[in-house]
Amino acid sequence: MPDRQSIGIIGTGWVGSSVAISTLHLGVAQELLLHDVRAGLAEGEAMDLAHGASFYPAASVRGASIDEMRGASVVVISAGKNGAPGQSRLDLLRDNAALMADLARQFRGYEGIVVVVTNPVDVLTYLFQKASGLPVERVIGTGTMLDTARLRQMLGRELGVDSRSIHAQVVGEHGDSEVVLWSSATVGGAALKRWSAWSGLREENIAREVRRAAHEVIQRKGATNHAIGLVTANLVKSLLKGERRVLTISRVQSGALGFNNIALSLPAIVGLDGAVEVLEPELDEAERAALSRSADMLRSVIDTVT
């Protein structure tokens, strides 16, 4: 990985700008590079962010070319079309696949880590890794990190507990076939199913609310950006600080739970070298079957563009 803690963001629309401000507030970048096909937009965002330098840890912010991005430690890709009301993440594939493949070819030989945010994130993570030839552990999609955060927030609301005390995960596709791992969910170390204020009858409603969360936000404001900005900035922090946090990121799998040559989310240890170690969570029979269906669905979509 390049030595300088320089972070590049490609795509400075709603999501890219939220990633940028969240990253600056975390103080993990010495330099933040912004790029957009609309050069003026990237320059304007850089200027606007730089004007607030008194209120975040020291960092320089400027517009940059794709070539300059190749010297960054981490490059975040948020370029692409946003989802429209009623449009699924997978419906975005035709609009964003060609863009991702073109970007990937420009990053062949890159020595840093790529974080893909653009949806459908699992498919585009797969396409970027294959087109770039980068090691699978260094092409990471934000995957179900946001879904997991939404799940914990909603469970915290239901139980009256801080979401940071809840350990529950969403795996598989970042989208309609995602799988909530209810069987291993815990609250403060106690199994959720034994929590006095919890009824298993709520599980389907909560899972549906998590799946529909993005749709609900998009219907009201046109895009989701703040939460994914926070998620992505924290993922970048984990990478650059070598925190070795366990996060539900998407990457091309190479054997975990029997999955190969497909990008989907499983818990992985994230650090300086990327998402090197994928963990195999305990699954009950229903969860294992649902995860297999999620993988099959993603594989069928990938097959249409490869």
Distance between the first and last residues' Cα: 29 Å
Q: Spans of 5+ residues with little confidence (pLDDT < 50)?
A: none
How many DSSP helices? Answer: 9
Q: Name the strands of the widest sheet in spatial order.
A: 3-2-1-4-5-6
Largest sheet: 6 strands, parallel
Helix/strand order, N-terminal first: EHEHEHEHEHEHEEEEEHHEEEH
Large-scale geometry: globular
Helical content band: 40-55%
**Relative strand content:** 15-25%
Structural class: alpha/beta
Please state the CA-atom Rg, rounded to the nearest Å.
19 Å
Describe this structure in words.
By secondary structure, the chain is of the alpha/beta class. It has nine helices and 14 strands. Strands 3-2-1-4-5-6 form a six-stranded parallel β-sheet, sandwiched between helices. A three-stranded antiparallel β-sheet has the order 7-10-11, covered by helices on one side. A three-stranded antiparallel β-sheet has the order 12-13-14. β13 and β14 (274-278) form a beta hairpin.
Key structural traits:
14 strands, alpha/beta, 9 helices, three-stranded antiparallel sheet, 306 residues, single chain
Produce a short descriptive summary.
Helices cover 40% and strands 20% of the residues. With 306 residues, it is an alpha/beta fold. The protein has a six-stranded parallel β-sheet with strand order 3-2-1-4-5-6, with helices on both faces.
